[in-house]
Amino acid sequence: MKFAFKILYWIQRLPFEMIQSLGALIGWLCYYLIPRRRHIGMVNLQKCFPQWSEKQRTALLKEHFRQMGILLMEYGLYWYSDAARIKKLVRYQDKHHLDDALAAGEKVILLYPHFTAFELAVYALNQDVPLISMYSKQKNKEMDEQVLKGRHRYNNVFLIGRTEGLRAIIKQMKKSDAPFLYLPDQDFGAKDSVFVDFFGTPTTTTPGLSRIAAMTNAKVIPAIPTRHGDGSVMLRFYPVWQNFPSGDVLADTQRMNDFIEARVREHPEQYYWLHKRFKTRPAGESDFYQETAHAAKSDKR
Questions:
Q1: What kind and span of H or E run contains 222?
Q2: Are 97 and 167 in contact (CB under 8 A)?
């Protein structure tokens, strides 16, 4: 693992254009070398874009692997590069929505879905804004130590372990003026989740956004990072959500998924398709991904 970190260190010393090209190559290779993830991505796209042809979905998935390869090769930038270099690669759009809320003394939750440029954007944002964020412990000890070191490189973030739960989040938000960075769009199982639609499919979704907003009186401000053709990233902030929370947790969680879906449709190749977003199914419904092992052997694309 330390050897991999050294490789990333030397990669970040390359010109940015070369890092992008190397990442694109790695993504292309991964598309063909990791059939299990390829299958998961294809199942997700079939569920979300059933009206598309197989050719369209395959083209988008290949582009998504390219984006993921770039994300992977950029980790050296996030961990080792000069902070000013990172800042130059990220531009803000409508950041006044966040600035105005913080200036008014509001508690803020940044709704921050998993787009492929999310790491680069947040490493730039954290230079300007202190953040509260969740952290999932890595299985590999060396990786866990490196990720934590990277997260704390500006001494401007407070991390809460995912196992600490809602109470730890509320406690930290109440004693801090920092926004809470909320990444909501993964399947953590049926416990403490609700089923609401995502691209028309019932999907286990954590209703934490509504509950945390209600318990802290926080304003919800979405922030979406998108990558441009030159590799730079635009982090766009959206207006504070009005009438949120509404008192109806299901309606609030559906509103969140609808917003994320709308943003995904704008940049579908940049959304994170390689995890099992639809893994947990309602009672009696079969596993969408159960053919993964067979498909991994037979899919030659």
A1: strand 219-227
A2: no
